Amino acid sequence: MFKDNKFKYRIFYLIGVIAVVLTVNYGVTNYSTKRITYNEFLTLLDQKKVKSVDIQRDKLSIKPIDDSVYGGKNLYTGNVKDPNLVEILRKANVDFNAEIPNNDPFMGLLLYWVGPILIFMVLGRLIFGKLDKKMGGGVMSFGKNVGKIYAENETGKTFKDVAGQEEAKESLVEIVDFLHNPQKYSEIGARLPKGALLVGPPGTGKTLLAKAVAGEAKVPFFSMSGSDFVEMFVGMGAARIRDLFRQAEEKAPCIIFIDEIDAIGKSRDGALQGNDEREQTLNQLLSEMDGFDSSKGVVILAATNRPEILDKALLRPGRFDRRVIVDRPDLIGREAILKVHAKGVKLSEDVDLNSIAKSTPGAVGADLANMVNEGALRAVKNKRKFVIQEDLEEAVEVVIAGKEKKDRIMSSKEKRIVAFHEVGHALTAALLKNADPVHKITIVPRTMGALGYTMQLPTEEKYLVSKEEMLDQIVVMLGGRAAEEVEFNQISTGASNDIERATQSARSMVTVYGMSEKFDMMALESVRNKYLDGRPVMNCSEKTGTAVDMETLSIIRTCHERAIDILNENKDLLIEISERLIENETLMGEEFMDIIRKRRPDFVEEEVASEKIENEENNIVE
Ligand code: ADP
Ligand code: MG
Ligand code: ZN
After folding, report:
1. Does the structural domain 331-401 have CATH classification 1.20.1250.20?
2. Pocket mutation for ligand 1, best pick of 160, 199, 204 (most atoms within 8 Å of C-beta)
3. pLDDT value at position 232?
4. Neighbours of ion ligand 3 (CB under 5 A)
5. Does residue 355 carry a pLDDT above 50?
6. Distance between CA 364 and CA 360 in Å, rounded?
7. In the chain, pLDDT over 70 holds for what percent of residues?
8. CATH class for domain 412-621?
9. What gap in Å lies between CA 62 and CA 50, rounded to an integer?
10. Suppose 245 and one of 225, 288, 423, 506 were both cysteines; which one would form an S-S bond, judging by CB atoms 3.0 to 4.6 Å apart?
11. Whose CA is closest to atom 18 on ligand 1?
């Protein structure tokens, strides 16, 4: 609860202020007043050095006649209750005066009771104000002011800001129209969906789309994230939902957006241990959705990347009955997104966003936005006024593989191994019929762990992969290790990522794509969390599982052998290109192909097949 740093700072700040005030006070008092003894006081009186005396209950404040006495400081001494004091003072001819006790009962009440309470309230507000918000209702206004609702009157976003999600936009246009003019629909008796669920991987623009809907319709936008509802106190989340709907209804027409709804909308069955708070929140949401009158023009949008775990009750008609898929953008989509984000960036003439889009299969909107920004940063760093193509290309690699790590010094032996490994990938890719052409090979290490990598680029957007292509891809992935074996007759740990990916591909061929002889077209795995990591779940017997492993192994073995054969047959190329790579550290696709063409004049480059897929991952082999 005390994790909130601002809260901590607030306390420090408070203590600081109090300390400073005390010190200053003390300093000032100390500086301008001085305590003396009663004797000294009497002596001063005798010497006629006192101007006036103020008799208080327990001390006498003494004003000296001029600066010659203790530098003119105000003096004080204890009130010894001397019965002769008045007499002495009269004799000394000094002005004297006694304090008048404050007997006004009303003032007393104010001072002794109301004052402290006020002070504590102010302090409490300061200290607990933050805590208050954190706990929702909080200490002072439990359950009332539930905070956290993020309301915007104008989101300022429009559909123009969302690129490449044409289908999603299309299905949301209707909602925009409805918000513009609810009567048109209610007159006919048409009932519009109360809610739409935006479904897709992270970073594809779901939140952005929801804002754009509000922006297009020019209605207020109320948003909350699913995790905001899950709180410490049971009932808090439900209170928030209620509050959210109340506020929204007042402002109708408007949009309520619940981001990451899976945090509350998780299916209730199947869990061993119930989560009371979440269930209450979910129930409240369900009943609010049933309860409100949609003809008023409140539309609920929600976003999630795990639609399969949502409670069925949320998805039934009358609730989130509409599903809008916001998927990873394709080539055209990516180019459009790049254009949107490049709008505010000064680009040089030579920039070709299409080629950047081509080199980023699988990237989502957030990645692309990030790439454009990285490119711009690089241009600034290199003191250029415009972003050039190279900046963007480098940015793509930074986003995919991390920054170049120039300070990592590899021994020349290791560098050699990495170079042969990468050329192994590249060469198998170039020589195999169904593999994508090589775009770049580099052995400059990157911060995200790669010591070097080979980048292949599909010449066209692909949606289907043939079995041959899949096999060739596996050969390319295993080509790195194969090159190490062919050249050094020795293997290293550098191929772990390749092995993992190759195994995954081979396995999917058997279990998902029906590409093995043995299991024909039997589905042996299903994919959960399609929009996240897509971890597959086996749905076959243990015995079959073992057989699947064997089948996977046999695919890998065949591909491995093929890679070794190819590299053995072309060892001259492997060595020449590797030497060149060691020297230059980076080889572009053209240079690389030139070497091959020179050595193999009869080498026919395959026409690129017209139907290929978009590889979900970027096709970089490390
Ligand atoms: P999500 O909610 O799906 O995880 P966001 O909507 O938060 O993703 O997107 C994050 C950022 O990525 C946006 O602010 C925007 O800059 C960028 N972005 C994502 N998708 C797109 C898109 N289709 N068009 C333009 N920008 C996008
Ligand atoms: Mg989001
Ligand atoms: Zn590799």
Report:
1. no
2. 204
3. 60
4. 480, 498, 621-622
5. yes
6. 9
7. 83
8. mainly alpha
9. 7
10. 288
11. 365
